[in-house]
Each structure stands twice: as structure tokens, then as C-alpha cells.
Design a protein that fits this description.
The structure is a homodimer.
Chain A lengths: L15 H17 L6 H8 L3 H8 L2 H33 L4 H18 L1 H12 L8 H19 L10 H21 L4 H17 L8
Helix pairs in contact in A: 1-2, 1-4, 1-6, 2-3, 4-5, 4-7, 5-6, 5-9, 6-8, 7-8, 8-9
The structure holds a DNA duplex.
Amino acid sequence: MPRRRPGRPRRGTERPTRDLVLAAATALFAERGFDAVGLRDVAAAAGVDVATVAHHTGTKAQLYDACFARVFAAEREVLEAAGERARSALAAGGGDALRTLHDLVDVFVDFLEDRPETTALWLRRWLEPHRHADLDERYAAPLYTLVEELLATAAEGGALVEPTPHVTVRSLVWAVHGHVVALAAQNGSAARERREFRSFVHRFLDGLYPPAGP
Amino acid sequence: MPRRRPGRPRRGTERPTRDLVLAAATALFAERGFDAVGLRDVAAAAGVDVATVAHHTGTKAQLYDACFARVFAAEREVLEAAGERARSALAAGGGDALRTLHDLVDVFVDFLEDRPETTALWLRRWLEPHRHADLDERYAAPLYTLVEELLATAAEGGALVEPTPHVTVRSLVWAVHGHVVALAAQNGSAARERREFRSFVHRFLDGLYPPAGP
DNA sequence: TCCTTAATCCAACGATCGCTGGATAATCCC
DNA sequence: GGGATTATCCAGCGATCGTTGGATTAAGGA
């Protein structure tokens, strides 16, 4: 690993060091948790010195928060874009509501399968809420309300056979996280596992609505 | 906290110190994780000295394993007893298979609601498999196969409308863990939350079987 | 050219960590 | 009563932790 050049960066240059540190720290935090990761581990993974990590990201707690903010912002962006697409598809009225709901949830599953560290950070956040006091309203609530809102919108046409959508959505989200964890734990035949889980989720979603009339 | 008496314990006396340490350590590990808990924290919570903790439970890693073994053994015992009852109820042939399945899963939900640290330890185990290399086969597999077996047994009468019981059972288990985490996070109206989740689980289980004929 | 700003690293501080050797006290067994 | 055994605590070891002060290098601004 070549040593990074010291000195003031050139004008047009962005600052890749901070992103480098954040990416390395995110991977380590997701795998081992806050206390098992030393700042020297982060520095070594990013190829810089410990003091450089502190220079860019402040204290360890601030670095932790920055990692969560970065990952959750990416998730939120993807989900809100998918939500907008679903909304306009339903507003157009031409599409099938159930099919739209399938597609929306597929985006969620795809995203978490592609970035398993997102699931790891969510689980750590749920396990240790005392570390994330200020993140509650900024990330968790919008995602849940989005899916619930989509569920309600999709249910406008046909009645929704589901008296507790809140519990239903939460259970669905946790099932997805469990799927990602199981994928990370097993060795082979991940493709089949992915297919089977999508099939399960679709059948689950279909069960929320009355069967289509003849 | 009165200092514990040194010296060899009396004959008939059991050894409460080890259990005291294990209980305190389990609560701390469930709340904060392995690395965030110091042996001095465990000792203080148990009202003993650090050396006493080491004397009874050996290494910190051994203490961690002992906590998991203790909690998972309790869970396994409860579940296997409920499984035996469900099996004999089905073998007698008199009862309703769906009702038997409801009761079995209710036992699981009740247990985790009563001991939320069980969920915390399961999630930590899933998040950090490198810490639990030897626990995989001893605890995880039997629970899953038990529920799947019960599902299969309950399905002998009526056909099971579920091509992937493995995925289904896992998703159900994760939904229960998510329910426990949500219960711990919220403040009030836990009774309503419990009722709604049970209702959800029952409807979910019913969806696995074809609707009863008229 | 010279001063300012910014990035990087080195060295080290105080605190805490897991762990242990040894002293002391209480009980059992003979 | 008197060793043997066991439980408990005290004190301290070496290692690692998060954090910081200061030196060095490189670029911008005048």
C-alpha cells in the first residue's frame, strides 16, 4: 500500500480519503460491531494512519454515525425512487396493483441482497438503540410509512384483507433481513434460495388481498 | 451489596455464584454485545470480584459460550416439550391440526416475549457467526427441523399449500424476533401489540393450508 | 516569493482491558 | 484438632484502546 501524499489537496480534486475511510469502517462495523473494531483496524483497512481517521471523521462515535448515515441514505434513496415509480404506476391506473406491489418489494429485496451490510447495520441498530438515539426519526420511520402508504394505495381498488398493516409490514421487513442473513451464512445454491424467497414474498403479498374474482 | 463469604461452601449447598454470574453476564451481553461488556462490569452486576468471575467461568469467551448455552438450552427445552404435546395431540387424531399448530407457535412467541434476551442472543449469533463456530449444530438446526417436522405432520391430513416450508419457517421465526425487538423499543400499549401480532401469526399460518371446505 | 491552509504521519498519554499469582477465610474429611 | 479443598478478593501485569500535540509536506493566495 503506497503511502498517501500529505499536504493540501489540489483545487479541483474531491476528497477520496474520507470516503475510503467510511467504506472501510462500514465493512468492519457491519462485520464485528462497534466495540470490536479499533480505529487502528479502520486505518489499516483504509491504508492510512490512525490520526488521519480522526482528522476526517472526528471521534469514533461520530465515525459510527457517519457510516450509518451513509448506508441508510443510500437505502432510502433507492426505496423512495421505487416508491415514486410505484405511485405513478398506480396513479396511471393502467397497471395491476398487485404486480406493482411485487415490484416494489423486489427492489427492497434486491437492494439488501446486493448490500448485506445494510442488514447488519439495521440489526445492530435494533439491538443497541442506546447508540443511535438521534437516528430513530431520520431513517426508520420513513421507510416503514412508505411501504404502509404504498400498501394502502395499492389497496384502494380492491379491499385489503389485513387488519394490522403495521405488524404485517414489520414482519415482512424482518423476513427479508432473515433471508439476507441466511444467504450470508450458507455456502452454495444461493440462486435457488433467492428464487424461493421471492416466490414466498409474492405469495405472502397476495395473501393480503382477496382472491381475484372470475 | 454485602460481600460474599469466602471459603469452601457447605455440603448440601448448591453453588449460586456461578448462576448469579451467568445471569448477570447474559443480561449484559444481550444488551451490549461481547466487546462492550467488561469482566469488571459482569463482576459488579453479580456483586463479586473479577477474579471470582474468572474462577467460575474461565475465559471471557467461555463465559460467553456458557451464557448462550444456558439460554438456548432453556428455549430448546420449552420448544421440545411443546413439540411433544403437539405430536401426541395430532397422533390422537381428535384435535384440529391448525389449532395445534397455532398453540405450538404461541408457545414460541410467549417464550421469546418473556425472555427477550433470547432474541438478542440469537441476533448476535447470526450477526457474528465467527464467534459461535461450535454452536451451529447444537442449537440452531434442531429448532428449525422441529417446526418443519410439526408443519409436515400437521399437513398430513390436509394438503399443505406451501412449496418452500424452509423459507416459510425461517421468515416466521424472524418475524417473531422482529416483534420482540419492537416490543422492547416501544413504550406503551404492549398488550395491544401482542394481541395484534398473535392475530397476524395465526392468519399467516392459516394461509399455509387450503381453506376448509363447507 | 512568502504566508496560510490542509492533509498526513509519528509518538505518546492516560485509561481500560483480560487475565493471574498469591493471600485469606470457611468448610469438609479424617 | 489438623491438613486438604474450595471460594473469594487484592494487587498488578502486559497489552490495547481512543485521543491528541506537534512535526512534515504540499498546495492555494497574495
